Every structure is written in structure tokens, then in C-alpha cells.
């Protein structure tokens, strides 16, 4: 699907109706009108167009309320497809999904440093081409590409302003991908995209505010309020990994000293293990640390528990600043959740200011390694389904 077609499909009323069908299907036209406050003719006219466009389909007859049985409406999840991209620090991962989030195709490409902007963009395009359907019957139904990029992203222009772990600046991702693929492209910080994906696909019920924190090679966060991402004045909201914890601490990839991520990121945990525990001078991996803890090694168990305490302190600070209704954690570090999560919860309970703040819900994403990819997908879906 080309860019102009996607824009033509979007309107406030269509988005309201689509989202109502998405969340409450099967649903009748009369129910939509009643619950959205749109007039019945407005609902009927827009539903007719949505059926013609293939995104909505009629289904079984509903229960009669005294007259004839109403025809129910459903989203046709195979009507359109979206490409999601997770542009991380060591790898680019791509998926092709239908409107329900079902993965149709995957691809990945490794990144090595040092790397130039041109090299990065070439690898990015190659990874996307690998999931682009060969069949026109499907490729013509791709409505866009969502890119979750680590670091600071200027959302309006889709530019990666600063990717600290790759030491790159000013990458024109949106511009280059729209020229290459002639599709709608949305670019977002990876942690913020993950937050939107959790709001969209995470089955978290209706929460007014949700904070998602991604703890892996780096540390980032995203805040969703009333279903919308919060970006801040200069698009750097959520860079919690760069909160200064120790003014005289280790130098971070961003150039500052003592950032939170120098304590709790995957590489930080490995560094502490090598300095405090390992005796054979052999490099460790995060997986080895987790396995040693699982095998009962108290040194590694203590290391992970201490990491949980530090994360808990960071989250308590965020609770005091943002006061989210729910916190969702993801990223590679949270694969050690059985050691880390109890300490996080205990630390919040000990340090938060009020009884209700102490009970802030903290959970782990159910999407695992796909959490950021699903966030990238949601950048397009929310633009289609949510009111504009």
C-alpha cells in the first residue's frame, strides 16, 4: 500500500469506529453509535467504506433486542500488514505482521562497530527487504514501517539524533526508508516504542498511565498516558538510563559519569561480576551469570539481587516523579527476573512515600525478545486505529 492510500484511510471518525471494533468485537453498528456518541448515519457510512477497503468484515448475527438480529462487525486482520524494526545496539531485527500482531516473516542482521550512517542504512534496508512479501497480493497490503531506534530520536522528522552505543548522529531514517519503499514510516525511540506496544498488545486492561523500562545493553523508558506516548519538549523523555547516580562513577557511553545504566545494564552487570567474582580472568557473559545463579552460586545470586535493589531505587525515583499506575519491565537483564524482580518490589515497598505508591504494580513484559518489535509495529497501528 502506498503512502497516499494510508493517509486517505485515516480520519477521526473512521479511527474511532475502527478502535471500537478492535477492542469490543464482535459489535453491531448500533452499539458503536451508542457507545461512541456518533450518529447512526455516520457509523453506517464509515463502516460501509471500511468494509469496501477490506479492513472490516461482517460476521455472525447478534442477539435480537426486539427487532431483527443485528449483523456484527470484526476487524479483518489479514486486510493489511505492517513491518516492525528493532534497531538495537548489536543487531537489527525485522518482522512482518498482520493487524493482530501475528508474525508472518522475520529477518535479522548483525551490526559491527565502528559503523557509518551509510553502512547502517544499507543494513537496515537489506533487513527490511528480507521480510517484504514477494507476492503482490500481500506486498500491496503493507501499510507502513515502524522503526524502534535506540538513543535520541526526533520523532517529527524520523531522524536518529544520537545513537550513543553505535556512536552515530543525525541518521535520516524516515527520509531514506520512505524513498526506498514508498511507504509510511514512523521512527521512535526503542523504549518509548516498547511502551506503546505494551499498551497496544500487552493485555494490561485500561490503565491511565503505564511506564515501561527496557533494561538491556542500555536503559530506557517510555510513558503512555491515556493511550498516548509522552515525548517531552525535546523528544528525550524516557532517557532514565542517563540519570546521574554517582557524580564520580564510571564513564557512560553518553560521556557522563555515573549514569544509572552503568550500574544495571547487561554490560554493567558483567563488569561487576568480572571484578568481584570471577577468578580465572576469562570474559563472562550475562547468560553465564544467570546460569551460575540458577545453579545456586551464592555470589552470583547476590550480584543479581543487588542489581534488583538498584533498579528498585531507580524505579522508586520514577514513581515519585511520574506516579504511574503500572510499570512493565523488559530487556535482556529481566531474563534474570526470578532473582531481580522480588528485590525490585521489596525496594519499592521499603522506599516509596505512600502506602499506595508502595503497591505500584511491577510486571515483566510477556513479549520477551519481541517486545520492542511489537512496539515498532504499534507505531503504525495506533496511527491507523486511534483517533487523529
Outline the structure in words.
By secondary structure, this protein is an alpha/beta fold. The chain has 3 domains: 3-75, Winged helix-like DNA-binding domain superfamily/Winged helix DNA-binding domain (Arc Repressor Mutant, subunit A), CATH 1.10.10.10; 81-196 and 372-385, 2-Layer Sandwich (Nucleotidyltransferase, domain 5); 204-365, 2-Layer Sandwich (Nucleotidyltransferase, domain 5), CATH 3.30.420. 43% of the residues lie in helices and 22% in strands. It contains 15 helices and 16 strands. The chain has helices at residues 3-9, 12-24, 29-36, 40-53, 117-131, 136-139, 173-181, 190-201, 261-264, 266-276, 286-294, 298-322, 337-351, 355-358, 371-385, and strands spanning 27-28, 56-61, 71-75, 81-87, 91-98, 103-110, 142-149, 152-154, 159-163, 168-171, 184-189, 209-215, 219-225, 228-229, 326-330, 361-364. A 5-stranded mixed sheet has the order 6-5-4-7-11, sandwiched between helices. Strands 14-13-12-15-16 form a 5-stranded mixed sheet, with helices on both faces. A 3-stranded antiparallel sheet has the order 1-3-2. Strand 4 (81-87) and strand 5 (91-98) form a beta hairpin. Helix 3 crosses helix 4 (40-53), helix 11 crosses helix 12 and helix 12 packs across helix 13. The longest helix has 25 residues, at 298-322. The protein is globular, with a radius of gyration of 23 Å. The two termini are 20 Å apart. The relative contact order is 0.12. The mean pLDDT is 90.
